[in-house]
UniProtKB/TrEMBL annotation:
It comes from Arenicella chitinivorans. NCBIfam families: RND_mfp. Residues 72-211 form the Multidrug resistance protein MdtA-like barrel-sandwich hybrid domain. Residues 416-432 have a biased composition (Low complexity). One of its GO terms (cellular component) is efflux pump complex. This is MexE family multidrug efflux RND transporter periplasmic adaptor subunit. InterPro entries: MdtA-like_BSH, RND_pump_MFP. Keywords: Coiled coil, Membrane, Transmembrane, Transmembrane helix.
Length: 432
């Protein structure tokens, strides 16, 4: 009875063990797949040879043109505007000392005549006192028979002479003031320039110190350009730089702007670099000067006017020596990947100049590069030292040196690897 009771349980256990045994047997007789070793093929990379160069480098800036001399014309006397020059209009051109506006001078002519009369009267008083002194001196010698140095100064009329001369000097001073006020009725500027704004008209009464307009000189224009400390160092300049030279003798700069449909250029020079950092922008500002901006000729038919936004190209004062590599070869700011014996090597460099196309790094032991090294310019995912790499079947030619000796040649750029090499590398990447 007891055995019959546990019979279903025993049958189930038997079936379970039988299934496990069958699975174990099947796993043991299952054919094993052949193991194949998978090796990742080397990454195809593009390279460029490192070149040793020594050349002038350029940096570009932007700034707004302003007049080197820009003043506000104000009246120095009171009166009604009597006449206005035809040139006294916005944009009008004038010469040094040319009268732009004249104030009614009737009152000042009266004051001038009165001052002239006062001088003449004071001069007569001096002459009378001198004549009286001469008479008194002669009488002293004739009546007293004593030398003049023993006479009382009042007896010789000396204090009266001094008083008359003092009154004459005061009258002359008043005459000079009257003449000066009379001359101030004619308002002019001491330089050649142009009218920027005007705020006075014919018949208007002006008080002393009233503004009649704003003018600027046309002998020179200035452009203030912001510079970073890195740019100053790259160009070989110094903070607080100042030059007394001008024109071609100074540090050259090229100023250009698009006016209308064409780009125009004006030659300039670096005048100075500020000796303090701007508190708001934390930048240093330099001053570029362009002389004779309104001198038009066959090469330049557009004047450089205030308010124009321009581009400034500044050259280094000396040739910069270093190693040139494409900008695409620079990694993490100061590293490059180098192809060496079918492996990737990482090198640390010190950048001394950067442009949109290329980078110049220091040599002479300051960088871990040497002329002839092959830097990698293509993208390298997961790059690490010792990584297997290879070159395309058609090797890449070295980078061409840009001809930057002339600031006028804006078209010369660094030659990048050609399209055929790029296609070859892309195909190799696809295959891998």
């Amino acid at each position: 009875m007891k055995l019959a009771k546990f019979k279903p349980f025993l049958i189930g256990v038997g079936i379970l063990f039988s299934a496990v045994a069958i699975i174990v047997v099947l796993q043991s007789i299952k054919p094993k797949p052949e193991e194949e070793e998978s090796t990742k093929p080397p990454l195809v990379v593009r390279t460029v040879d490192v070149t040793d160069i020594e050349q002038v480098v350029y940096s570009s800036f932007q700034g707004e043109v302003r007049a080197k001399t820009d003043i506000e014309l104000v009246t120095e006397v009171n009166g009604k505007v009597k006449s206005v020059s035809n040139k006294f209009i916005e944009g009008g051109q004038f010469e040094p000392g040319e009268v732009l506006l004249e104030i009614d001078d009737a009152d000042y002519q009266v004051a001038l005549k009165s001052a002239e009369a006062a001088v003449a009267s004071a001069q007569v008083d001096v002459d009378i006192e001198l004549a009286t002194a001469a008479t008194n001196a002669r009488e002293w010698e004739d009546l007293q028979g004593k030398p003049l140095d023993q006479a009382n100064p009042l007896r010789l009329n000396k204090p009266q002479i001094d008083r008359a001369k003092a009154r004459l000097d005061a009258a002359k001073a008043e005459l000079a003031a009257a003449r000066l006020n009379y001359e101030r009725t004619k308002i002019s500027a001491p330089f050649s320039g142009r009218i920027m704004t005007k705020s006075a008209e014919l018949g208007q009464f002006l008080s002393r110190g009233a503004s009649i307009g704003r003018v600027f000189a046309t002998d020179a224009m200035e452009i203030r350009i912001p510079m970073t400390d890195v740019q100053i160092e790259e160009l070989g300049l110094k903070v607080g730089y100042s030059s007394d030279k001008s024109g071609d003798a100074g540090h050259p700069a090229k100023v250009s702007a698009v006016f209308g449909t064409e780009r125009h250029e004006w030659p300039g020079y670096l005048k100075s670099i500020d000796a303090s950092v701007d508190n708001d922008t934390r930048l240093l500002f330099a001053t570029i000067v362009v002389e004779n901006p309104f001198a038009l000729n066959q090469e330049q038919d557009v004047p450089l006017v205030p308010g124009l936004f321009v581009d400034v190209e500044l050259a280094s004062p000396t040739k910069l020596a270093g190693l040139q590599i494409p900008r695409t070869a620079l990694r993490n700011g100061n590293q490059v990947y180098v192809y060496q014996n079918d492996e990737l090597a990482t090198r640390t460099v010190k950048v001394v100049y950067t442009s949109e196309e290329f980078v110049i790094v220091a040599n002479h032991g300051l960088s871990d590069l040497s002329p002839g090294d092959r830097v990698i310019t293509s993208s390298v995912p997961g790059a690490h030292t010792g990584m297997a790499v290879k070159l395309p079947e058609s090797d890449v030619a070295p980078i061409a040196e840009p001809a930057l000796e002339s600031a006028d040649d804006d078209e010369e750029k660094v030659v990048s690897p050609d399209a055929s090499d790029a296609a070859t590398s892309a195909a190799a990447d696809a295959q891998s």
